Amino acid sequence: MNLVIIGTGYVGLVSGLGYARLGHRVVCVDRDVAKIAKLDFGEAPFFEPGLPELLREMQEAGRVVFTTDLASVINGADVIMIAVGTPAKPNGTVDLSAVFDVAEEIGKNLEHEAVVITKSTVPVGTNRKVLEIVRKAMTVAGRVDLVDLITVASVPEFLAEGTALQDFMKPSRIVIGVDDAVAATLIERLHDGISAPRVVTSIENAELGKYVANAFLATKISFINEIANIADLVGVDVTEIVRSIGLDPRIGSHFLRAGVGYGGSCFPKDVSALQQIAGQNGYNFKLLSAVTEVNNRQREIFVQRIEERLGNLKGRTLAVWGLSYKGGTDDIRESAAIDIVQRLFARGAEVVAYDPVAMVAAQKVLPENIEFAPTAVDATEGADALLVLTDWPEFREMSFETVVTHMLTPLIFDGRNFLADLHLKDLGFEYYGVGTR
Ligand SMILES: NC(=O)c1ccc[n+]([C@@H]2O[C@H](COP(=O)([O-])OP(=O)(O)OC[C@H]3O[C@@H](n4cnc5c(N)ncnc54)[C@H](O)[C@@H]3O)[C@@H](O)[C@H]2O)c1
């Protein structure tokens, strides 16, 4: 099939290359000229494991091209996919301006029958609005005879940054929200080669279901963080609790690692969007208010724990490992690590940070006085404490025998409970996890 994907970010680029790998001819469109130039040159615009290799392979095979000019490519497309950002507005509602701008562009330029798929995460009713905008723009452009040949569908994306390529190729499910049986079959064919259950459902179910999935995962994280806080108070170990409850198949162990809370470009905004959707329909979604509140409080509790141990943080040197919102990505949007560094800086601490790939992005948002170290070990030189804020696998591989000799005080605060099983106490470290003993 010929596929045009608009929006070449974490979702649009990964899925564009994924569809190319499935054998489709894909055009990726973005309004960001620098990003498209980079991609055209064969360079990945962000860090994602396996992305540069797949990009090269698909470019060499001639199955993917990049452009900023939607008008020049749209008329060869069987499927047009919208994958632009849907960030939160300051009041927590979803900013759909990019989605609607793209819908207008599609309508202005489309001269044939097509299926328009929204992959972006959008509130209930958005796809119908997209259809309305596309049809209106087509009518204005004098193509009223074609408006009934346009179908919309919601096919939300469930990939996670850091494992995005494998998530695309091996998802837990493919949700197809559509009214039209012909379009449903076409979308199923688009995914031929991916072995995963298909959930063909209404557009509205698909739209809301994406928010529900993220809100539920965020709820699990806040839930276990509250248990971790109680565990600290009563002197038990949250990781032991998870080890036992996780064996209950009704509960499972995924997303039950206590720590400094969730971040990223999806969970915070999607939790808040679902709350807004509920509110706009007259329902007070109390549980989600608590999920957000617990998540924000978790960062402050972590900082307070450091203060309890070290006293006033003014002038203290703190090594920070990890700035991205989780391991495997350079994405720092809503990163708990960035927030915690800012809180420490505001208390007068001298922060020396290291992240394998997110330092360039972090430098743009953190205060100038934050120091960045060339290696993880360098960051610990003369430190009063080491803070682990992102679960980068390489942090587990560090030579802690070397780290202990660099630090002023061999003190570790592990905000991800990521090193809990490494027996760091045996090496002379004082180790604090979140809810661990
Ligand atoms: N990042 C994730 O892990 C993830 C996972 C699942 C779903 N989602 C959802 O997918 C959507 C995209 O997320 P993302 O993280 O890929 O966003 P992103 O910010 O990485 O990328 C969005 C891209 O859209 C482009 N764009 C914006 N307006 C445009 C326009 N009018 N014309 C052309 N291009 C335009 C931007 O330049 C940018 O490159 C969001 O709705 C998000 O909630 C994200």
TrEMBL record:
NAD(+) binds at residues 30, 35, 86, 121, 161, 269, 333. Substrate binds at residues 158-161, 210, 255-259, 263, 326. It catalyses: UDP-alpha-D-glucose + 2 NAD(+) + H2O = UDP-alpha-D-glucuronate + 2 NADH + 3 H(+). The keyword Signal does not apply. Pathway: Nucleotide-sugar biosynthesis; UDP-alpha-D-glucuronate biosynthesis; UDP-alpha-D-glucuronate from UDP-alpha-D-glucose: step 1/1. GO terms for molecular function: NAD binding; UDP-glucose 6-dehydrogenase activity. Transmembrane segments: none annotated. InterPro entries: 6-PGluconate_DH-like_C_sf, NAD(P)-bd_dom_sf, UDP-Glc/GDP-Man, UDP-Glc/GDP-Man_DH_C, UDP-Glc/GDP-Man_DH_C_sf, UDP-Glc/GDP-Man_DH_dimer, UDP-Glc/GDP-Man_DH_N, UDPglc_DH_bac. Keywords: NAD, Oxidoreductase. One of its GO terms (biological process) is UDP-glucuronate biosynthetic process. It holds the Pfam family UDPG_MGDP_dh_C. Its EC number is 1.1.1.22. Residues 319-421 form the UDP-glucose/GDP-mannose dehydrogenase C-terminal domain. It comes from the Bacteria. The active site is at 266 (nucleophile). The keyword NAD applies. NCBIfam families: NDP-sugDHase (TIGR03026). Belongs to the UDP-glucose/GDP-mannose dehydrogenase family. This is UDP-glucose 6-dehydrogenase. It comes from Candidatus Uhrbacteria bacterium GW2011_GWF2_44_350. The lineage of its organism: Bacteria, Candidatus Uhriibacteriota.
